[in-house]
Write a structure and sequence with these properties.
InterPro entries: LOR. The chain has a domain at about 50-170. It contains one helix and 13 strands. It has one helix at about 145-155, and strands spanning about 5, 10-15, 20-30, 35-40, 45-55, 55-65, 75-85, 85-95, 95-105, 110-115, 120-125, 135-140, 160-170. A hairpin with a 3-residue loop joins strand 7 (about 75-85) and strand 8 (about 85-95). The longest helix is centred in the last third of the chain and has 11 residues, at about 145-155. It is globular.
């Protein structure tokens, strides 16, 4: 990993008890933000993201390894943010497919939709005023896309110390 300044780190668990670590996101600034998504316990890199941000303008490129596939294939894509006063919207492109990640201001919910506007996944922020750690619950409703795409998209939005709990409803 680059020798740049450390940014937000994410742990992704399969449960709220934080007993089964599935993935870890490691993030650095050097000079732009670079993110690696690793599986656990073997620490294999299955995703990378490089971002550029200037004010509210945000753009990133990424590559993900589809661990569901037997072809050992990496896919490239991009993420772009469109923001207004009342919501953030991210456009995620992957292999000529599009996902939209939407968040209304102060809602703490991030929803992912496909081109047909079907709900694919959702993150819900857990608020705890006594903790510096931001925690999210993740529910995935479809297997149209690799799980790593949702994790990298949230990491692109949130660069704080974070824990994510996965609940797959596929």
């Amino acid at each position: 990993m680059d020798s740049g300044r450390k940014a937000g780190q994410f742990n992704i668990y399969s449960n709220q008890a934080e007993t089964n670590l599935l993935y870890r996101i490691e993030s650095y600034y050097s000079p732009m933000q670079k993110i690696d998504l690793r599986t656990y316990p073997d620490k294999k890199v299955i995703g990378r993201l490089n971002s550029h941000q200037l004010g509210i303008w945000y753009q990133a490129t990424y590559e993900i390894f589809d661990i569901r596939s037997k072809t050992n294939k990496w896919f490239n894509g991009s993420i772009k943010r469109q923001s207004t006063w009342f919501h953030d919207e991210y456009h995620v492109n992957l292999a000529e497919r599009k996902i939209t990640m939407k968040n209304r201001a102060f809602s703490g919910r991030f929803k992912f939709y496909n081109e047909a506007n079907s709900l694919l996944a959702m993150f819900k922020m857990r608020r705890n005023l006594l903790s510096a750690v931001t925690k999210y619950d993740l529910k995935i409703f479809s297997d149209q896309f690799p799980d790593s795409i949702y994790l990298l998209a949230l990491a692109a939005h949130d660069n704080k110390k974070t824990a994510i709990y996965s609940h797959n409803d596929k």
